[in-house]
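Query structure, 962 tokens:
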């Protein structure tokens, strides 16, 4: 015996080996138990719909991928995290995540903090640096999840294609839905680069404007789900909906999974949003500055903004101008200084972004969506004269900006906070607010404003650097408090973010955050969001509000926005965001339809920027926004909303019942998994650890048998507990060492006494065995087919009276407290009996595997049949189309008035008939070719159906139950 867990459950070496093999089993692809390890190792409270979605992805070993299309807010990132964790546990660790650039950090944080997976964000700078130091395959980081943007993946398509990915996850995958159009360069480039790779696509809006978008997304995953575009359009897009919906639903069922928010309200309670609009009037100096800078930005030729950067930089400068006079003053001064530098030494202007990036933190992500390059030209005399004049203007603007020491919106903030805090208190929420601004200089200004107000206590800043003294103090205190626990990640940047959020939760009152605060932090404890600066990109706004209005929020969320009474364009932007996008009120926030329609939101942002740039008069502004709103309405039409509902939404009762079963199963498997892991750990660690309860232990010394001597000592606990200890899980280095030690132990037959008397609770199956003895043999069976290995534990038990133990009796016997005794010899005849029974059980398992794989094979064959039939329909459609053209040509020839027209008509008819006859002759050959392709594909699958088996004996014991 090695030790004792708190409830006195003694464990033997044989049981430890059994537990170790059971914990590391590879399950059948469609088994609910498959996810137990991934769930147990995650620092997140999972909902049943998330487990269900993760199990759906690749449920068949023949699957080439899946489309997870849950509505916004249901945690598709968590679902993908489970799938990734499962792949990781299976040692398939070349994983790529492609996401919008502004979501890369959020992915990094979610996977690192919730699933403990090592991640790396790759971008051009880090990629090129890797090349410089001799790593010529920067993407191939086996053992690290690679995260990159769409643009990066496109630009490095050859490298993406050459890397043997085990899994590719694509977030906001509706960006790929027009891949069927050759003009969609990014989608088609990625489709070719990721061909033959297993893919998981995530989007809340798989269908927006046309059924062809569904064809595009599905074909991105699997080319053989439907035929070609022509046949799909013929059968589905142009046919009567009632006739095709059922067929289309069946074809989509194996590849597309969607859960609706209304279906999960039992598990995920949602709160509402309440909007508050605070109007303000800028001071005269602010208005003058706005007009001067606006006209400057409209000039045809600007030396400060090279042509390639002009659109982006104009957007940023307009954002800073709207943010505060302090923000634009700093930007104007920086640009003026850079222009002077260029004039002094005729140097290249370089990247104008460098001047603004430190202040406008969203620049990196926004720039990633722009594609520009600038060619540098030597300065002419005219250029020099223009630069001198421009510097003078910029200097004057900056001087005016710095002379303004108070902003109208800054004063309005204090009034808005009073109203908003009162509303939050009325709703029962804590008096905490997060204030978002797009400028770091504005952030500093707001700190000064609030420092002289009743809200001076408990302010914390949050930005991309966090170098202010107050943040450093908060970090130092936090680090001292959590040193020695897994709360300290080792990354100062990540730990600083955690420290500031913890301070805001426990002691703070107001957090003033830049766009860095809109990514990857969870503020469910705060229910007041203040958009001091309102982005024009609706997805950024939704992301901000989503920091607070998310799963775990117990109160309704108040959203405060500011409106400039004098600015017509500002009013229309707010109206559009509020009424069309429904960002600020309701239960769920921004609608899937609209957010999906605008895709990244950057094009929408560009459109608004163009209106500000080109429209001066109220009528011009009104007309431009009316046109923008009309186009948005056309993109989001009611007919397609109904189509989406019929195709992608299951009946609520059916979904709820399935989720209830999934919830029950997940809890059972999770409890058993964690219980076995802790019993095994307690047994192997022995005196090196003190177990305080069934989920917590203190590691006092590093075991002599582990090579991982850098394993930290101290308190360990299972995930989803306090989080103040090291989080212990199967994939932790200590957990892996414990399992390997138990699995490698060589065992000889021994006498084992199982103690039912001291077991807590009653096990009905074991009651008849009390006072009896017998023999038990345990082996591990591995079956591999369809390139998918799965493990089973074989149990053969018999009593001294010759009566066999059922599998349930044997399993339950092995979980009882036990003590081992003297070695024993297994009688030869009995060994043969046990071996024969193990063989029978192995045969039964192989039949189950064979039947299941036959089902998978049948589903795949049906898919290929559908694909082949689609293509044949396309061929027949071409002949029908020519028949139609012949009929029209004959009617036209009959109606012709002149001989020349009649002769021309007859000539056209003969030409069409010849074409039709040739098509008919080729039809059978083309159909035969399709059948040959189908046969070849099925033959490839059949070759994988052959089973390979391996049986390893684990131990044999003589048992007795007391």
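Result returned for the query:
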């Amino acid at each position: 015996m090695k030790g004792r867990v708190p409830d006195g459950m003694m464990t033997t070496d044989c049981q430890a080996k059994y537990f170790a093999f059971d914990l590391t089993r590879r399950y059948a692809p469609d088994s609910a138990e498959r996810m137990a390890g991934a769930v147990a190792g995650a620092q997140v409270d999972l909902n049943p719909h998330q487990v269900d979605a993760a199990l759906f992805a690749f449920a068949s070993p023949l699957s080439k991928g899946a489309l997870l299309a849950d509505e916004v807010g249901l945690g598709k990132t968590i679902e993908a995290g489970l799938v990734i964790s499962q792949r990781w546990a299976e040692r398939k660790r070349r994983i790529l995540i492609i996401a919008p650039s502004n979501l890369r950090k959020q992915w990094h944080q979610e996977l690192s903090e919730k699933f403990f997976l090592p991640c790396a964000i790759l971008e051009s700078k880090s990629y090129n640096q890797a090349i410089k130091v001799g790593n010529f395959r920067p993407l191939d980081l086996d053992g690290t999840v690679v995260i990159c943007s769409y643009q990066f993946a496109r630009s490095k398509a050859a490298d993406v294609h050459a890397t043997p990915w085990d899994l590719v996850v694509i977030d906001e995958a509706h960006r790929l839905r027009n891949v069927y159009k050759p003009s969609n360069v990014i989608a088609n480039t990625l489709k070719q680069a990721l061909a033959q790779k297993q893919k998981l696509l995530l989007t809340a809006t798989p269908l927006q404007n046309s059924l062809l978008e569904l064809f595009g997304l599905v074909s991105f995953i699997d080319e053989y789900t439907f035929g070609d575009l022509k046949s799909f359009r013929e059968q589905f897009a142009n046919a009567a909906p009632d006739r095709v919906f059922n067929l289309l639903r069946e074809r989509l069922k194996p590849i597309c999974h969607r859960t609706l928010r209304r279906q999960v309200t039992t598990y995920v309670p949602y709160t509402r949003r309440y909007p508050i609009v605070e109007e303000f009037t800028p001071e005269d100096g602010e208005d003058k500055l706005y007009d001067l800078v606006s006209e400057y930005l409209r000039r045809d030729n600007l030396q400060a903004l090279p042509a390639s950067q002009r659109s982006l930089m104009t957007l940023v400068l307009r954002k800073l101008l709207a943010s505060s006079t302090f923000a634009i003053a700093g930007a104007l001064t920086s640009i003026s200084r850079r222009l002077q530098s260029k004039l002094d030494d005729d140097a290249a202007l370089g990247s104008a972004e460098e001047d603004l990036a430190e202040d406008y933190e969203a620049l990196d992500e926004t720039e990633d969506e722009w594609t520009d390059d600038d060619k540098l030209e030597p300065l002419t005399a005219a250029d020099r004269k223009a630069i001198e004049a421009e510097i003078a203007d910029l200097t004057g603007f900056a001087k005016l900006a710095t002379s303004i020491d108070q902003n109208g919106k800054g004063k309005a903030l204090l009034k808005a906070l009073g109203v908003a805090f009162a509303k939050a208190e009325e709703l029962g929420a804590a008096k905490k607010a997060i204030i978002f601004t797009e400028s770091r200089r504005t952030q500093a200004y707001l700190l000064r404003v609030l420092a002289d107000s009743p809200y001076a206590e408990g302010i914390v800043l949050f930005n991309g650097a966090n170098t202010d003294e107050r943040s450093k103090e908060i970090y130092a205190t936090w680090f001292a408090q959590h040193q020695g626990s897994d709360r300290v990640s080792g990354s100062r940047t990540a730990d600083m973010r955690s420290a500031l959020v913890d301070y805001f939760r426990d002691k703070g009152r107001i957090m003033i955050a830049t766009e860095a605060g809109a990514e990857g932090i969870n503020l469910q404890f705060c229910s007041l969001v203040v958009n001091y600066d309102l982005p024009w990109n609706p997805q950024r706004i939704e992301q901000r509000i989503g920091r607070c209005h998310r799963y775990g929020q117990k109160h309704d969320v108040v959203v405060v926005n500011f409106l400039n009474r004098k600015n017509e364009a500002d009013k229309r932007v707010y109206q559009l965001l509020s009424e069309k996008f429904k960002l600020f009120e309701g239960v769920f926030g921004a609608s899937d339809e609209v957010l999906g329609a605008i895709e990244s939101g950057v094009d929408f942002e560009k459109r608004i920027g163009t209106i500000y740039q080109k429209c001066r008069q109220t009528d011009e502004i009104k007309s431009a926004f009316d046109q923008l709103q009309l186009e948005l309405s056309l993109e989001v039409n009611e007919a397609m909303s109904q189509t989406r509902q019929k195709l992608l939404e299951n009946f609520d009762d059916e979904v709820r019942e399935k989720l209830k079963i999934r919830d029950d199963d997940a809890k059972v498997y999770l409890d058993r998994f964690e219980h076995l892991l802790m019993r095994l750990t307690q047994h192997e660690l022995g005196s090196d650890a003190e177990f305080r309860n069934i989920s917590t232990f203190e590691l006092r010394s590093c075991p002599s048998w582990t090579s991982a001597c850098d394993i930290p000592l101290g308190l360990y606990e299972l995930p989803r507990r306090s989080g103040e200890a090291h989080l212990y899980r199967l994939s932790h280095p200590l957990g892996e060492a414990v399992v390997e030690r138990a699995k490698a132990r060589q065992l000889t037959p021994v006498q084992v006494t199982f103690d039912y008397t001291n077991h807590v609770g009653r096990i009905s199956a074991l009651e008849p065995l009390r006072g009896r003895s017998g023999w038990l043999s345990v082996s591990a069976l591995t079956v591999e087919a369809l390139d998918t290995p799965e493990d089973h534990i074989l149990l053969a038990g018999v009593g001294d009276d010759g009566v066999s133990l059922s599998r349930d009796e044997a399993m339950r016997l092995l979980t009882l407290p036990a003590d081992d005794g003297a070695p024993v010899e297994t009688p030869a005849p009995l060994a043969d009996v046990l071996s024969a029974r193990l063989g029978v059980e192995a045969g039964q398992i192989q039949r189950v595997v064979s039947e299941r794989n036959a089902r998978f094979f049948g589903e795949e064959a049906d898919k290929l049949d559908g694909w082949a039939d689609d293509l044949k329909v396309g061929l027949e459609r071409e002949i029908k189309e020519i028949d139609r053209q012949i009929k029209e040509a004959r009617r036209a020839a009959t109606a012709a008035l002149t001989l020349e027209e009649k002769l021309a008509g007859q000539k056209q008819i003969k030409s069409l008939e010849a074409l039709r006859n040739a098509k008919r002759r080729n039809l059978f050959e083309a159909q035969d070719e399709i059948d040959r392709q189908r046969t070849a594909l099925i033959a490839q699958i059949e070759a994988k159906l052959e089973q390979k088996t391996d049986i390893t004996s684990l131990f044999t014991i003589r048992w007795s139950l007391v």
